[in-house]
Structures are given as structure tokens and as C-alpha cells.
């Protein structure tokens, strides 16, 4: 048995940051680290240049030289997948940063202010929530030039309302706590109260939501690319790879299978970690 | 010794190494009522639940025999046969203790069938009569009956199943004063008529003094005083018992 | 309760109004001149001007919005630039096909998801629970278009167990034509007793419905498990244990019914999501539903049609939410004050 020592200084930290609650969630975290490292280190890890069509090496099955085979123009699939991770993760980070920033700001203001300001913000939020995300993204992707930036904008436009809802409910509950009342009575200006008390306390659930959402954003962006409205050639992107290879599925399975698996594994990793974090925050959902 | 329906020796209940209840000796015979008193958190409810093996994730040591069944070593099947049929539980909050989407009659019928009771309809009718409840109540959902009715229904369940032991966990604390009297009245009458062994957990010393033969006083998981109810309540020897008595209105 | 209903209904109407405005904005953002698209590339300036006047394109934007709203209220959803049919008629054909697909998928999801959730809750922290947890997590993480391609390739192209694409064998249209009642093929075939089309449709439904069912099955299994575990930790479960009931019978006979409330409301919410998710599946299996219609409309920049699909899906979403909230209000009085 190991003896556990807990110094008083570590106690507050333990309470604010959710512990990695179980081995399964930890597995998700490890998987995320692997995916992120693979994407970041792609230029050094990839066995071939990313855009290097070799017409004589088209559609080679997996082998020692090409672990995941080659695609319809003779590019190494493994290399394209490693680089594709950069695209997907970049989109996910950008979308979540934009939506969380816009959504949390609006939500905190709505929750703290209450009254008609809250009503207006929340109704606008409802309208955007009612709008089918994929469809609005589709329409926007048509309006703007298809590409990575369009995908980011299109998904962010439909994603921020979730953060507004979350932050508004958090802020509303925090705004009624005694220490916030006390600060208000002391004449601390509202922006300062929001910055000092409301924002930091709304952060943990937002972080959990970010982890849960990353999988969804990656799936949506892949779907847009699959429909031809996202990343364009010669950018390496998983959804695009599936679309370009789909007619070859019966004859050259590796062209479609590996990019699809890459999407699945990445979304799975984020969902597993997100679920674990949520369980840690909400003990009612946890298994003890 | 073997004529006791509840027998516990050196009972110790702990969660993750932290002892929450320790009872060196607890006996309840047929027709007898023993009360465990103490503040909330003193370990009295845990003690009661551990007697039927109903504590979750708790480590229990010692010896516990209920109706002759060794609770700590019994098979799950033997435990299920003991529970309900011979030893019944009455819980604190009468509404929360009944599944919200199940009619009272359905619950009773299922329980009777589970334990192989024959002549279900007559048994149900008679049990309801014994606790002075209208049979019509069997058609209702838990939220459609009052707290007192729900609590008397819980007792009716015990009677219908032919329980010899009733373990009651704060059976009156969630009820109005007049309703409390009804429920206590039913318990007292049944104990006399059916020779039931009654183990009562309560923080209400006024209630305990009217029904209990013997009393165990618990504080912080330990028994600090025990003995005949009249003695303990009239001449408490432990300062904690005195405190509890002084808190009475 | 009545006040709650009125307030909730007012909110829904407000959201619908917002959706209409947003749809109008998106419509005006789509590039290309609808007049050109309508009159054709070889149109004379006079024909173009006539088309512009017909669509009111020369009016100021607020006036156009007003006209749009007035037309919608009168039941006029515009005319598709591609099919030259009223959009409402097009949707009336496409939506039932989507409904058929999504409805079947949700049926599969309920039939699979709830028992899986029960299994996981019964053996929580044991192997079956872990299996359901991993399985449901995979189901919600899989890209639908890829799953659709994979199942199509394996079970239709390679093994030949199921047809590759379409809603039913089109040769049947001549040998045993279908009388339309609801436009939902399965239902129409059932009520008119058209067995060849019924069996052919069911055969064609299996693969796409399974793909669309993946996400809702995972979510329902997770939700059922969580709700059951919470329910079996309640006081009443303790009483049921004390009455001698075993864990399985506590879960299935006592805990499942109260736990179904949150699960059912989840189904309504997943419904709108499944329709949009179904778009990708419809594209792969060439299912004649809203998704295919939307994809073709987008490709030909058919603004009234795009607006029509968007509006319809948004209305379905608002309606599903409204139904959920009203049901919750009946079940849980506390929900009314929110």
C-alpha cells in the first residue's frame, strides 16, 4: 500500500480541476495526445512529401513502403492522413475558440444582467439553435468560396449558441451567490465582478463542453468536406479523402477505410475524454 | 439466545476504512421493540440497513442473524428470501420509498407473487384492513396518497408478506404530528397482536418513550449507552443522552 | 399550466419568426441572380426584367421580406428554379421519404438502445457495461457518410445481401404501381396491401436506416443507463431490495418507467438531428428524401428550394422542442417555472 500525502496547498486545486476520473477517460486523453502529436509532427513523421503524385504508383495496396497504400493519383495515404490531422485539428481549435469566445461572452452578459438583455440574447440564441447546423453550414459554404476558412466560419456560426446557453445558466446561478452580492454592495463595477467572479467560475463546465464538442466539430467539418464544400485539393483532409476515394471502395478499400478510421478515432478520443470529464463534474452520472 | 429474531454481535460497518457504526451487541426478540436513538449521522440508520445487507459499498464485519439467517454469509438468493417475506423495512420518507410510476396495488401484488403467497387478493384486502386503509388506495399512484397513508401502506406490505420482523427507519419524522400518532398506533397494535419484533431507529425520544422496551443511544458511530427504555430515559448515565433529553420540548 | 403553455408557445412563435428572417437573409446571400436562373441564360432583357418584377427583386429588402412572410403565411413557399414546381409540392414528396428513413432509424435506436442501456445499468462497472460504453461511444463518433459507404460496400456490393441504393425496385412502378395516401411509401404500401413494394422498400431501408440509427442508438443507450443508475439509487429501489426483488427486476419492473421520461424527450431532440444527419446517408444510398433534394438544390443554386428545406427542418426542430417542453411541464411541475 502506498501512503498518500496531501499537502494543504494541493487541496483547492483538486476541487476546481476535475480529476481524470477513470482509466477509460484517461485512455481517451492519451489517444488525443497521440493524435495531436501525429498532426503536429507530421512534417517529420510522414514518410513521403504531402503533395507528391506519382502516376506510376497509383492505388498500391498497403505494404512495407506504403503502410496504408497509395491513393488514386499515387500519393502515400499515411502521409495524407498525418497532414489531414493538421487540417481537422486546426478547424476544431479555430471553431471552438471562436464559438466559445463569442458564446461565453454573450452568455455571461445575459446571465449576469438578466431582465430584457437576457431575454433578447436568449431568443436570438434559440433562433440559431433551431437552425440545422449542417444546413446553415451548407448554405454558407455555397455563399462563400469553399475552403477551410469557410468551414470554420460556417460551423462557428451554428456552434456558439450552445456556449451562450451554458454560460448564461452558470452565470445566472453565480450572480446570486452571497460573495457576488457582497461585491456588488461594495460598489465593485459590473465588468470587474464578471471578470473576477463570474467568468472564472463558469470556466470548468465550458472546458468540459469544449472537449465534448471537439468530436462533433471534427465530424461536421469532415461531412462538409465530404460534400465538397470544405477543404479543397491539394489540401489533405480526411472527409475529402473519403469523398475522392468512395467509388474505389470495392476495389481499393484502403483509400477510403483509413481516412474514415482517422475521423472515427479522433472523434472517439475527444468524446471519451469529454464524457469522463462530465461524469467527474456531475456525480449523478458517474459510476461509483 | 436463539429465540431472538435479530441478533448482532460486534457489528462494524465501514466505508473505505472509515468506521461509521459499531454495535457490540443488539438483540430483538419476538414481541419486543428496541429503539436506536441518536442525532443524524450517528450511524443508527446505517446499522439498521446493514442488518438486511442493504448498505451499498460498505464493509461489514461481525455476526448478524436475522430470523436465523446469517446475513453476512448468506447467498444472494437466501437474502432475497429473507427480505420482505420475513423481515420488512419501513423507510423515512414515505413517498420517495415508493416507485413513482407503479400503483400501490401493483407493487404489493408483485411482492406477494415474488414470495409465492397464495390467495393474493384476500391477503391484500386483509392487510389493508389491518392498517385501516381503504382498499381503493391500491389503485392509486404514490403521489396520489398522503404521507401517513403511504407509511401505513408500507406496513401493510410487511403484514401481507407475513413478516416477523419490522425494521423502521425514522418512520414518523416526515409526517405531521397527528399522522405520526396514527402510524405509531398501528405499529404498536400489530406488535402486540402478531408478536412482531420491532427495531426502530429514531431521533424522536418522545416517540421512543411511548413504544420501546429497550434503547441504544448512538453517537459518532458508537453505542454510548444502552438498557431498558425506562431506565435510560429516566436516569441517563451518559452526558450525551442527557443532552438529547434536554433538547426535548 | 395554461400560462406555461401560452408562454412556451409564444417563445416558439418568436423563434419561428427569427428563423424566417434568417432564412430570408441566407436566401439573399446565395450568389447568382434568381431572375437569370429562372429565365434561363438566353433570356432577352425584357424577359429578365419580367422575371425580376415577378420575384420582386427590385423592391427594397424590407419590402421583399414582407412579401416573403405574406406568401409563406398564405402557404406559398415559392417556385423551385430547378424543378419549376412549387417548393411546397416538392417538399411534400421529399419529406415523407426522409421521415420514413428517420422514423425507421429511431425505431431501431429505441429497440436496441433501451435494452443495451438496461444491460449496462444492470452490470455497471462490469464487462457488459464497458462493452456498451465503448460501443455507444463508437456509434456517436463514427462519420455517418463513411459508415454508409462501408456498409454499402460490404453488404450490398460485395455480399449482395441488400440492394445498393434507391427506395424500392423501380420496375415495380409498372408491375404493381403504388396508390399514394401519405406519401410515406411503407405506410402507403401497407394500407393498400401492395406487398411487392412493401417488401422491396423494407429491403432497401435496412442499410440506410441502420446507419442513421447509429448515433441515436448510442445516445439512447447512454441516457437509459444514466437514468436507470440514478433511479436505482433512489429510496424506492432500497425498499424494493428490502422486499426481496432482485436487481434485474428492480431495473426492468420499477426503475425503467420513471427513467423513460428523459429518454423519450431525448428521442424528440435527436429526431431533428437525425433528419439532417440523414442527408449524408441519403446522398450515399440515393434515397429520394430531403437530403437529396437539398443537395441538388444547392448544386443548382436553387434559392427558394434551399430556403424551403431550411425552413422545414427548422420548423421540425422547433416543434420537437415544443413537444418535449410541454411533456416535461406535465411530468415535472418544476420545469414550468424555467
UniProtKB/TrEMBL annotation, chain A:
GO cellular component, one term: plasma membrane
Major place of residence: membrane
Domain ABC transmembrane type-1: 85-274
Superkingdom as given in the UniProt entry: Bacteria
TM stretches of this protein: 24-46, 89-115, 127-160, 253-274
InterPro entries: BP-dependent_transpt_permease, MetI-like, MetI-like_sf, OppC_N
UniProt keyword annotation of tRNA-binding present: no
Protein name: Peptide/nickel transport system permease protein
TrEMBL record, chain B:
GO CC terms: plasma membrane
Gene Ontology MF, one: ATP binding
All copies of domain ABC transporter, residue ranges: 6-245
UniProt keyword terms in alphabetical order: ATP-binding, Cell membrane, Membrane, Nucleotide-binding, Transport
Matches recorded under InterPro entries: AAA+_ATPase, ABC_Ni/Peptide_Import, ABC_transporter-like_ATP-bd, ABC_transporter-like_CS, P-loop_NTPase
Domain of life: Bacteria
A Pfam family the protein falls into: ABC_tran
Membrane protein topology class: Peripheral membrane protein
PROSITE patterns per UniProt: ABC_TRANSPORTER_1, ABC_TRANSPORTER_2
Localisation: Cell membrane
Presence of keyword Oxidoreductase: no
Signal peptide: none
Recorded family membership: Belongs to the ABC transporter superfamily.
Name of protein: ABC-type dipeptide/oligopeptide/nickel transport system ATPase component
Source organism: Nonomuraea fuscirosea
Lineage start: Bacteria, Bacillati, Actinomycetota, Actinomycetes, Streptosporangiales
Automatic annotation (TrEMBL), chain C:
Family: Belongs to the binding-protein-dependent transport system permease family.
Organism this protein belongs to: Nonomuraea fuscirosea
One CC-aspect GO term: plasma membrane
SUPFAM superfamilies, per the entry: MetI-like
Transmembrane spans: 12-30, 101-122, 134-155, 205-228, 263-285, 305-331
Entry's localization field: Cell membrane
Keyword Transmembrane helix (UniProt): yes
Primary location recorded for the protein, binned into one broad class: membrane
PROSITE patterns the UniProt entry points to: ABC_TM1
Descriptive protein name: Peptide/nickel transport system permease protein
One Pfam family in the UniProt entry: BPD_transp_1_N
